[in-house]
C-alpha cells in the first residue's frame, strides 16, 4: 500500500478523507484513488510520459521526507511481495533521483546555453574581423602588386633614359668631330643634328597647341561623324578660326589625322581594307575613339569589310534584327567581350537592344553589363 500511496503522491492524486478510527478527526486514505489509478488502461502510458522536469517542490519534499527513508520502501524488499509494486517503487525512486540531479544539472545547462550564446556572439565578431582582415590583406596585396608594377615601369624608364642619354652623348661627340673637321656627308651623321632640331621644334609646337587641337578633335569626334567631307572641312575651319580668335592655342591648319592619328595604325587600317583618302582615315579615327557605337552608312560595304578584317582575330559576331537568335548571340558577345556588327539596321531600333546602343545601364549577376560590353571589345 505504501508504494501505491507514493505513486499517487508523485502524480498529485488527492487521497480520500475518512474518519480516524481512533476518533481524532480524519485520515488520508489512498486505497480508493489507487484502485481508480490502476483501473485506468492508460496508467503505464502516464508513467512513461510523466513530466519529470516540472515536479512541484512540495511533492518532492513529501516523497523524500516520508517514503525514501522508509526501509520498507525498497525494491529488494517489495519484490518479495509484488513484482509489479517493485517496478512502481523503482519508478518513484528514479523520479526522486532524477529531480535531485536535474536541480544540479539545470543551472549548469543554463550556464552552458549562456556560454554557447556568448560564444556564438564572439564567433560572429571574430568572423567579421576576419572578413575585415581579409579585405585589408587583399587591398594590401593589390597595392603591393601595383607598387611592383610601378617599380618595374620606373626601372624600365630609367634604363631608357640612360640609354637615350648615352646615345645622345655619343651622337654629340660624333657631330662635334664632324663640325670641327668641317665634314657634312650627305645622308650621314651630319644631318642628324638638323633632323633632331626639327623634331624638337615640331614637338614643342605640338605641345604648345595641344589644348586647342584636343578641343577641336573632341568636337570632330562628337559632332561631325554624320557630315560630308565638304561640310566637315567648312565646320572645322570655322572652329579653328574661332579658337585662334579667342586666344586658345591650336594649329593654324588643324588636322584630325595629325592630332589623333598614328602612322602605323593607319597603315594597318589600309591593309585591312580602309581607303587611303583623308576622309576615310578621319572616319576610322572617329570609329576608334568615339564613346558611342558607330552607325556606318556603307552602301559599298567598305566599312563592313574593314571592320571584319580588323576584328577577325577577336571572334567577331555578325547579326541582323531579322535573325531569330540575334539576342542570344548579342548576350553571348556581351558576356565574352566579343565585337558585334549589326547589319541592315533600319530607321527604327528594337527596344530590346536600345539600352545597349544608348549606353543605358542595367545589371546582371551584380556586374554592369554595359560596362563590360564597352570595356572588353576595345577596338570595336
From TrEMBL:
Organismal lineage: Eukaryota, Metazoa, Ecdysozoa, Arthropoda, Hexapoda
Domain of life from the UniProt record: Eukaryota
Classification via InterPro entries: AAA_9, DHC, Dynein_HC_stalk, P-loop_NTPase
Domain Dynein heavy chain coiled coil stalk: residue ranges: 37-236
Protein name (database record): Dynein axonemal heavy chain 3
Listed GO CC annotations: dynein complex
Entry annotated with the keyword Coiled coil: yes
Origin species: Timema poppense
Coiled coil: 109-181
Keyword Cell membrane: no
GO biological process: microtubule-based movement
Pfam families with a match to the protein in the record: AAA_9, MT
TM region(s), chain numbering: none
GO molecular function, one term: dynein light intermediate chain binding
Keyword list, A-Z: Coiled coil
Domain Dynein heavy chain ATP-binding dynein motor region as annotated: residue spans: 267-359
